[in-house]
Design goal:
By secondary structure, the chain is an all-alpha fold. It is 68% helix and 2% strand. Mean pLDDT is 74; it is low at 256-299.
Length: 322
Amino acid sequence: MDLLIELFHILLVTPMTNVLVALARVFGGNFGISIIIFTLVMKVITWPLTSSQYKQSRAMQAIQPKMQELQKKYKGKDPKKLQQETMALYREAGVNPLGCLLPMIAQFPIWIALYQVITLSLGETPESFVSLSQKLYPIPYVHTAVPLNNNFLIWNLGRPDTTFFLPFIVAASMYVQQKMVQPTPPAGQLTQQQMQQQQTQQMMLWMLPLMFGFWSLNVPSGLALYWGVSNIAGIILQYFYMGRTFDPRTLLQFGGGAGRASAPAVRATRDNKPVATVADDAMEADFTADDGASDAPGTDPGAAAAGQSTRRKRNGRRRGKR
């Protein structure tokens, strides 16, 4: 365990400390700008994982209709067969259900290291200053950057945010990110399995932002700033990479919409025909009856023509209103 901790410090904590201190020196000792630049650089470095996540999300959305067909076909009949067909569909589409989680898992070590770097770099005691000096490489440019300025705008980056602004930004931006890749709810009446999946998605949609928002209240503001900037950059990249298909109005749709049709509703039907079709059939029947009446023996041709003309005008007005 001690060896792993030592490797963690050698490979992540020490290099990140020197990079952030050097960036702060470039920007006049402003550690907040240093964190923002570092966040954007990390977005570039982790872009292969991020683009893979976007591809997986887009592929998952594309196979949703086929998934719904499989669920309807094997609903309550053969769960094992449903699982096999689902995995076959994943393989055919090149989808890995866990692919969307890889970027987040890969960032956990970075978050832990950044927490230690901020605690080490922005400490307010003489002991922390000595510990920071021991982590710096023997480069004069880096050593002359300390001590660092803890303040950035209205925050002390070495302490938790007491304004609640950064925790709100972290939670809200994470909610938007997840909402952008959330699969569209299927139209019509949902199966039990679909309802359970949708409930799970809704729970994750709320749980992760609230969890990170709570963490942002208890960690140094510098780490919350990293999360917020990372999420906002992710939203911008996601919007352009996913083809700008996201509708911002869906952000206000907090419910899952289970059991409701998402397509435009069709009016009530009779004998599996829309009302409009039934009305057209009725009009055609009326015309047929009119024609039959005009051809009936003993009917005055002039009166029949006048009556037929009147009825046709009436039906024309009905169609115009409709």
